[in-house]
Amino acid sequence: SYELTQPPSVSVSPGQTASITCSGDKLGDKYASWYQQKPGQSPVLVIYQDTKRPSEIPDRFSGSNSGNTATLTISGTQAMDEADYYCQAWDSNTYVFGAGTKVTVL
Amino acid sequence: QVQLVESGGGVVQPGRSLRLSCVASGFTFSNYGIHWVRQAPGKGLEWVAVISYDGGDKYYADSVKGRFTISRDNSKNTLYLQMNSLRAEDTAVYYCAKSTGTHAFDYWGQGILVTVSS
Questions:
Q1: Are B54 and B72 in contact (CB under 8 A)?
Q2: Region label for A101, one of left (φ > 0), alpha (ψ between -120 and 50) or beta (otherwise)
Q3: Each residue's pLDDT expressed in tens, for chain B with a length of 118 residues
Q4: Which residues of A43-75 are buried (b: 16+ CB within 10 A; e: fewer)?
Q5: CB distance A94–B108 less than 8 Å?
Q6: Do A42 and B102 lie within an 8 Å CB cutoff?
């Protein structure tokens, strides 16, 4: 079965850039999506189709996907961005999530 | 605005059954595939099942195949998940989520807790 691998945690200082990677076999040939989840809340879609951002998501969130790695980048990270982030892809009629990355804003 | 509201959760004994419902509003329900996604306590997200806009196609995670059945009633804007032969490892918050049409989930419900315990 298809697997997506994320680092368990990423730390970033306020105002700096956080990059979260998601690795999977030929992931660049699939669409990658990213979700933000804060404690006690439902997930929120922040990036879909590799690079697209829902209208309500701030433009400091961006995405890329090539080769075996998709990346979510948060530029000018704010305290409110502290959350768990999950990548997700579709493969052979099943949907796969990465294990999640906890972003801590120090 | 788009709303998805789950119901039907609770505590159930191992081996028993439970049916979850998800009522949708704020969009044309019959035009979109809808998913169930779950999250065990303190764990990550796990996709469970999806049903196409017209109910003609259904796909399941291996972990629930043969035990869970997804269905929908477009006249009632409602999605269902029939869960049979429940196991302790099925304990989780269950979310319904609307498909974007390009393999992402753009709106999520608030989630409903299912606890399988004797």
A1: no
A2: beta
A3: 999 999 999 999 999 999 999 999 999 999 999 999 999 999 999 999 999 999 999 999 999 999 999 999 999 999 999 999 999 999 999 999 999 988 999 999 999 999 999 9
A4: bbbbbbebeebeeebeeebbbebeeebbbbebe
A5: no
A6: no
